UniProtKB/TrEMBL annotation, chain A:
Transmembrane segments: 33-52, 58-77, 84-105, 125-153, 208-228, 240-260
Keyword Cell membrane applies: yes
Membrane topology: Multi-pass membrane protein
Keyword Signal included in the entry's annotation: no
Origin species: Halonotius pteroides
Name this protein carries in UniProt: ABC transporter permease
Similarity comment: family membership: Belongs to the binding-protein-dependent transport system permease family.
Keywords: Cell membrane, Membrane, Transmembrane, Transmembrane helix, Transport
Domain ABC transmembrane type-1: start-end pairs: 77-257
Matches recorded under SUPFAM superfamilies: MetI-like
Organism phylogeny: Archaea, Methanobacteriati, Methanobacteriota, Stenosarchaea group, Halobacteria
Length: 268, 255
């Protein structure tokens, strides 16, 4: 009976490779055109404005070179990373764990529902007072703000993912001898919900870069602090430099994450 | 095939009734269904949609409780899915994040007294048994319907259940593949000696496969009759005896 398998439609490995490359090239080309157009418009607009309202790309480039040359950028980046990394990791871990637990157990969900609904609308920035009181004006305090942001995104993504896990897969697993909540969560629920969980983590990572600026409002050093200080001094070129640094960091981390995600979710 | 199989087990369905609550009061899905299955027997449950055969399947599998009556498997009452029975659904329900090999190995990973080498060997035997050699590392998304159902069958067989419970397993594949899968299932049944309970709405399929056909009628939840199919295998659909049996089953469903 092994011989007749071949008569069925052959499994496809992937979509054609060549057209994909073509589309990528086309997208890259159009993207370059769009970027050039944006820079052109910016330049044109800057001609009629003083530098403290809108500096031209050339002025920003000069400021960027100066900030990089003095090493200021790397110092600020190094400081921000010290709360971005722990904040993101802690918030993501707790958010996924809570989302999976409450998505799985209706008992836990019912118990925690009033608390969750009360805390959910609180913006991370409203918790600055707690950050200072509990942790102080330091990396731990900023990490707390970032972690709160990461927590909710991951909580809801994981919760939704777990709710969507098919009962049939759970039935199959039970009939194959998987017994008990923890075993089912490990062997079925988390893998089945992993696309949603991983999308949540990705959104959370991006959100945390934005929160870096906000979390430094109360005086923790880093890129956000540099942006706020430059704003107060009307150094718009420096502000834009650090915004670009944030964008580039976000892009790099996001690209790396997407590569990992693609590998983990190769079965999709 | 040098696989050690545990052989079949007996099933007894005793006075099973099922009622569902609905807005118009309770609705009857099964009414006092009773029949037995001998060890190693191949029994098909056939009936039109809405006759309660899927409800019966879910109660047999322990996925749903009966309102009254009970199902026993080798004299122990079925209350939840157990590794004593392998379940195969129409929609396959493969684990999409696992390869063919990973799906088949799923039930063996927690098995006691089975070390890694034994497990790999058993998985490879099952892959060969269902004719999927060469596709071990494929994910379900890249398999055809027929191949997916082969994986589901191998996965259910992996834990060496005494009973295979199948709910319209070949309902979602094309006619040609279906006939081939039926032949393969009969081969596997004869090779392993499992007891098989097979739900279908296809009268020809039931008469092709079964030792006995449990016929359910249009009035919901009623077992009409149990029709023995005393035709030697392999059976041909053009055979006169086949036609007579199929006609008999069909008339029981309709009247």
């Amino acid at each position: 009976m092994a011989t007749d398998v071949q008569q069925e439609p052959a499994p496809t490995t992937n979509d054609g490779e060549l057209p994909v490359v073509g589309i990528d090239r086309r997208r890259a080309g159009l993207g370059t055109v769009g970027l050039a157009g944006f820079l052109g418009l910016w330049w044109l607009a800057a001609l009629f404005q003083p530098a403290y309202v809108l500096p031209s790309p050339a002025v920003v480039a000069e400021a960027a070179v100066a900030e990089f040359a003095s090493g200021e950028v790397f110092v600020a980046l190094g400081q921000s990373i010290q709360h971005w990394i722990p904040g993101t990791i802690i918030g993501t871990t707790l958010g996924v764990a809570a989302g999976v637990a409450l998505g799985w157990s209706s008992l836990l969900d019912d118990i925690s529902s009033p608390v969750v609904r009360t805390l959910r609308p609180v913006p991370p920035l409203a918790l600055i007072g707690f950050a200072i009181a509990w942790f102080g004006i330091n990396h731990a305090g900023a990490a707390f703000i970032i972690a709160v942001g990461a927590f909710w995104i991951n909580f809801y993504a994981s919760y939704g993912g777990v709710e969507g896990v098919s009962d049939d897969l759970l039935d199959v697993a039970r009939s194959l001898g998987v017994d008990g909540d923890l075993a089912l969560i490990k062997t079925v629920v988390i893998p089945a919900a992993s696309p949603e969980i991983m999308t949540g983590i990705r959104t959370g990572i991006g959100r945390c870069w934005m929160l870096v600026v906000a979390a430094e409002i109360f005086g923790v050093p880093g890129i956000g602090r540099r942006i706020l200080r430059a704003s107060n001094n009307l150094q718009v070129d420096v502000v834009i430099t650090y915004i670009l640094v944030l964008s580039i960091m976000f892009l790099l981390v996001d690209m790396a994450y997407r590569a990992v995600q693609k590998r983990v979710l190769v079965w999709r | 095939m040098a696989m050690t199989e545990s052989g079949g087990s007996s099933v007894q369905v005793s006075g099973v009734s099922k009622r569902y609550a609905s807005e118009q009061g309770s609705v009857r899905a099964l009414a006092d269904v009773t029949f037995g299955v001998d060890p190693g027997e191949f029994v098909c449950i056939v009936g039109p949609s809405g006759c309660g055969k899927t409800t019966l399947f879910r109660i047999l599998a322990g996925l749903e409780p009966a309102t009254r009556g009970q199902v026993t498997l080798n004299d122990s009452v079925v209350t939840e899915p157990t590794p004593n029975m392998g379940i195969v659904f129409q929609e396959y329900h493969l684990f999409p994040w696992r390869t063919v090999r990973g799906n088949i190995a799923f039930g063996l990973e927690k098995a006691v007294g089975l070390d890694g080498t034994d497990r790999d060997q058993r998985v490879q035997q099952l892959i060969d048994l269902v004719g999927l050699a060469g596709f071990e590392d494929s994910y379900p998304k890249s398999l055809s319907g027929g191949m997916k159902q082969r994986v589901a069958l191998a996965r259910a067989l992996a834990i060496d259940p005494a009973l295979l419970l199948m709910d319209e397993p070949f309902g979602a594949v094309d006619a040609q593949t279906r006939e081939r899968l039926q032949d393969e299932l009969l081969d596997i049944w004869q090779e392993t000696g499992k007891t098989i309970l097979f739900v279908t709405h296809d009268v020809e399929e039931a008469v092709t496969l079964a030792d006995r056909v449990v016929v359910m009628g249009r009035d919901p939840g009623q077992l009409r009759e149990i029709v023995p199919i005393d035709i030697d295998r392999p059976r041909s659909r053009t055979d006169a005896a086949f036609g007579t049996s199929a006609e008999r089953v069909r008339s029981l469903i309709e009247n």
